[in-house]
Amino acid sequence: MNAEALQAAIPEIFAPWIAAMGLEVEQAEAGTVQLRLPIRPAFVHVGGVLCGQTAMAAADTAMVLAMMSQLGAFKPMTTVQLQTSFLRPLSGSHATVKATVLRSGRSLAFGSIDLLDEQGRLAVQATTTYALL
Length: 133
What we know:
By secondary structure, the protein is of the alpha+beta class. Helices cover about 25% and strands about 40% of the residues. It has one domain: Thiol Ester Dehydrase, Chain A. A 6-stranded antiparallel sheet has the order 1-2-4-5-6-3. It is globular and about 40 Å long. The two termini are about 20 Å apart.
């Protein structure tokens, strides 16, 4: 699936509040996607930085899209594990979200997601495990 097809799939398969986040699919190859996450006032906590819940939702969404790019279509799956490390605060106008499928088997898939700040510095790193249903 290319970037355009993945972008069109967001409002079709994700919850409305995920679609409302405004994620933009910038690049897509088999098993890898890059998204642009706008940092909106609703996503920022008192400290003036992106809240962890937004980062985790963006990471989880990006990995589903990466799986779709590898599989060629949406297949039912569920998140089994999402481990997230917050390395530096994220602020500014946007973040870049890069997701890569590390391994996909018959029943489990594993992935890695990086969120980068506007300067390209790693700010959040997540790993995921999905059960393929």
